[in-house]
């Protein structure tokens, strides 16, 4: 049976997931109303995704981004509640682990509207990450928990979530990579023969001066032997500028404005190595079969590490980053597919019917 669904989104990775899930909801005959919280608001962090990925225009654009986490989440909660009172949906759909995810889920559950969580069950076991708090709380109050992998489903079972609520569908980002990584796209930079692609934005790296300094040092060292291209997140640019390190970095590394999804996939596909602290990019590199170095202590996407495509760099330092990046290589084992078969979105649409 088709449902009336309000989906809440607000940050860059959610636009990518919504591109494939919204299309599947529509194919199934569900009615979807989109609420954009405004957590990401720059043209190249938001609008460009809606245009390039053909995502339906949000009915509500709340314009609530920036500021402290509690304030952002609280203001979003208040505004989403009003949208839900007007729209009276059968269910609310949220994605991933951002402040917008938690605000959407909490607004719904307080109005007794059931919540569907796409990308449920991920855990880093690091409660200092805002994303970990957002995930755990959202999973706890969701009615449908759509997981990307066996391991994610296992985490939910271990936490005592009723098994009929846990639906293992595979990863919607796999659907997105399969759908959008073909075809040519014009890039804002001439690609060197060999290069590493860098993205950094996590609060645990940008807001920790020692981590950020180690990253700048590591990238400058690597750039001595391997050219680096880095589309820069606004958070990272702001922090580097404040600390006076932006110039040093841009002398060594080709720093770009944030790029769109199609451009990002192309930049990853042609890279020799990806260096990141993003969750989504660790998986995109895996799907595109490019070795990844993750500048974090732990990852939620443990399968990519276990299969040899991803390496963590614990105890970040300039030399440890340099050694990891220059030593990165492809594993010899055939590639397994721990994140499903690229048809997660259709399964989500069907499960909600
Ligand atoms: C958020 C999510 C993270 C996700 C990431 C993807 C949370 C807690 N974190 O982190 O899970 O992986 O998005 O990018 O929700 N800013 C701009 N322009 C923009 C967007 C942000 O200037 O378009 C600025 C904000 O004002 C803020 C900073 O960048 O100062 C960080 O943005 P924020 O939304 O807090 O978190 P992200 O680091 O993007």
Write the layout of secondary structure elements.
Blueprint: E1 4-9, H1 12-28, E2 31-36, H2 47-52, E3 60-61, H3 69-87, E4 91-95, H4 99-110, E5 115-118, H5 130-140, E6 144-147, H6 150-158, E7 166-168, H7 172-180, E8 196-199, H8 203-206, H9 209-223, E9 228-231, H10 234-243, H11 246-252, E10 254-256, H12 261-269, E11 273-276, H13 279-287, E12 292-294, H14 302-306, E13 310-312, H15 318-326, H16 344-351
The chain binds uridine-diphosphate-N-acetylglucosamine.
The site of uridine-diphosphate-N-acetylglucosamine has 18 residues, from helix 1, helix 5 and helix 10.
Short overview:
The protein has 353 residues and is α/β, with parallel strands linked by helices. It has helices at 12-28, 47-52, 69-87, 99-110, 130-140, 150-158, 172-180, 203-206, 209-223, 234-243, 246-252, 261-269, 279-287, 302-306, 318-326, 344-351, and strands spanning 4-9, 31-36, 60-61, 91-95, 115-118, 144-147, 166-168, 196-199, 228-231, 254-256, 273-276, 292-294, 310-312.
Identify the CATH class of the largest domain: Alpha Beta
Structural Rg:
20 Å
One letter per element, helices H and strands E, the order comes to EHEHEHEHEHEHEHEHHEHHEHEHEHEHH
Identify the overall geometry: globular
Estimate what percentage of residues fall within beta strands. 5-15%
Which molecules other than protein and nucleic acid are bound? uridine-diphosphate-N-acetylglucosamine
Biggest sheet strand line-up:
3-2-1-4-5-6-7
What is the CATH architecture descriptor of the largest domain?
Answer: 3-Layer(aba) Sandwich
Task: Please mark out the parts with pLDDT under 50 across 5 or more consecutive residues, or reply none.
Answer: none
Biggest pleated sheet: 7 strands, parallel
Under CATH, the topology of the largest domain can be stated as Rossmann fold
Number-wise, the strands total 13
Number of domains: 2
CATH superfamily of the largest domain: Glycogen Phosphorylase B
Oligomer: single chain
GO molecular function: ATP binding; UDP-N-acetylglucosamine 2-epimerase activity
Keywords: ATP-binding, Isomerase, Nucleotide-binding
Protein name: UDP-N-acetylglucosamine 2-epimerase (Non-hydrolyzing)
Enzyme class: isomerase
